[in-house]
Write a sequence for this structure.
């Protein structure tokens, strides 16, 4: 897992879209639902992890 590939999102965000980036390579755009329990979701294409602001600070 690429732990360095993390994107912080706002706390009120319930879903994110990902289509890759220049580092990991592009992939078809997908939409991911943020897990309410841990406030994060990981893209299964490129491994990018989206974490809600408040959850990220607590770690
Ligand atoms: Zn992705």
């Amino acid at each position: 897992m690429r732990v360095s590939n993390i994107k912080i999102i706002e706390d009120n965000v319930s879903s994110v879209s990902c289509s890759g980036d220049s580092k990991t390579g592009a992939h078809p755009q997908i939409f991911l639902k943020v897990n309410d329990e841990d406030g994060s979701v990981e893209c299964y294409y490129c491994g990018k992890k989206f974490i809600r602001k408040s959850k990220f600070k607590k770690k």
The chain has a mean pLDDT of 90. The chain has one domain: 6-54. Residues 53-58 form the longest helix (6 residues). Residues 18, 20, 27, 43, 45-46, 48 surround zinc ion (CB under 6 Å).
